[in-house]
Input
Amino acid sequence: MAETERPWSSVTRIPDELPCSADGLRVVEEYVVVEGEDAQALAQRQADAIREVLEWLYAHRGDATRKSRA
Output
């Protein structure tokens, strides 16, 4: 199944009729309930993303303090 076909796709869909702020930004929230195989796939994708962030944070721990002391 292609990314755009999934109900929880990360592909942005912003209707043109929604108002924008003065600086041209607009925020759209969309909640979709998924069940079954789609829910399992989404849970796995989220777990993988969280693990990737945690591994990056662990690998770069202390970077900010080292830079500020230099």
Q: What stands out?
A: Residues 19 and 25 are 9 Å apart (CA to CA). The radius of gyration is 18 Å. The chain has a mean pLDDT of 79.
